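We modelled the chain as a single entity of 441 amino acids. Its sequence is:
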Amino acid sequence: MTIRHGKHHGADGGVLLVTLLICVILGTLIGSYLSLIQNQHLSVARAQAWNSALVVAEAGIEEAMAHLNSGVTTNNLAVNSWISLGGGIYEKTNFLGESFSVVDIKIRPAVTNPDPVLVATAFVPGPISRPKLTRTVQVATKPKTVAGVQGGMAVTTTINLKGSGIAMDSFNSTDTNYSTGGMYDPKKASDKAQATTLSSATNAIQVDNGTIKGGVHTGPGGTVSIGSGAVGDATWVGAKKPGIQPGHVADDANFTVSDNNLPAGQTWMTPAPGKYKINGVNYKYLLNNSSAWKLSALSGSVYVSGPGVVLYVSDKLDLGSGEQIAVAPGASVSMYVGAPTANIGGSGVINQGGVAKDFAYYGLPSNTMLALSANAAFTGYINAPSAEFDLGGGGSDAYDFAGACLVKSLVMNGHFNFHYDESLASAPVLFGYAAISWDEL
């Protein structure tokens, strides 16, 4: 008998074909699924990199803001690893792992709005060795300012003008009608001086035999004591009328006092002591604006040679006989003092340009005593809200204090004349910059 199997071979071939077709379909599906997963992974990785690029760019903007608010002047931002590219552009590169940002601070003095513009471009690795992703952020800024000390002499507790013949008046270093070369001129003096306290105590201000060409202000219910002295306009005081002219005393004082803080983002350097002879005077320290300077103890003379100098005295400030802080014409310094007791004696502060805002003293909360005992004139701005301010010295000679002060309390013991520079109120004090717009380019 002959048995034929042809049909079975055909059936087996059909099964094999179907199996292969199914395998192809499954392989295609698996391949498509794997491709989908890979694309999804790439998409997620790219999205994460894209988002991290924005974080890196904004970190660069924060770095630039910290630099602007660190106390440096926009006349020279090329410190703390920032470099000048010319044309008012300063640049710094910040690294964060494999990512980095290139940050520019652009100062545009020739345009209508010269305030700094910040531009940060971030570079982050792309997913799976793909090209780097970049994002650029631009932020415009505006100055943060607070008004200067109104009236020149402001305290939170008491004022005592118990010195001999204390006289207060005002001038304006930015107005030639009320100053000569920016400096106080008794022939051009005005009567805008104010002695102001937040205290509501009895005798919160003691004028005694002093004279104030201007007015006095206390907190609600506070009172002013006066002996043979006078408070009023120039005519009243000039006529030597004792007492307070009607309309020149009020219990309406209302202002806010904030603690001073060190500038953020500074890298402090210690200046090298030496023997620097300038104009016949030997100085221990020569300070420019190449860095922010820090001294734990300041004794010996200091010469400030450039604009925008920042000096931090942390523990001790004591200028003795023959010592001084000299500020060159066109130079300026902001001095932050943490010393519990600070004494500016000797020859004091020699502000050679004669402009009060060029010497600014900022007492930190730990600075609770400040004595100005120098036998020399003082031109500057004192902001030490935690300090009891004592003005002594002078001997039989009268010395001038030109500028303004904001302190906890004030006692004038010596022969001082207090001349309030009205420009310190009309031109607000710069306290850094704030962002006003954010754009992604």
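As a brief sanity check on the tokenised model: The CA atoms of residues 42 and 128 lie 8 Å apart. The chain has a mean pLDDT of 85.
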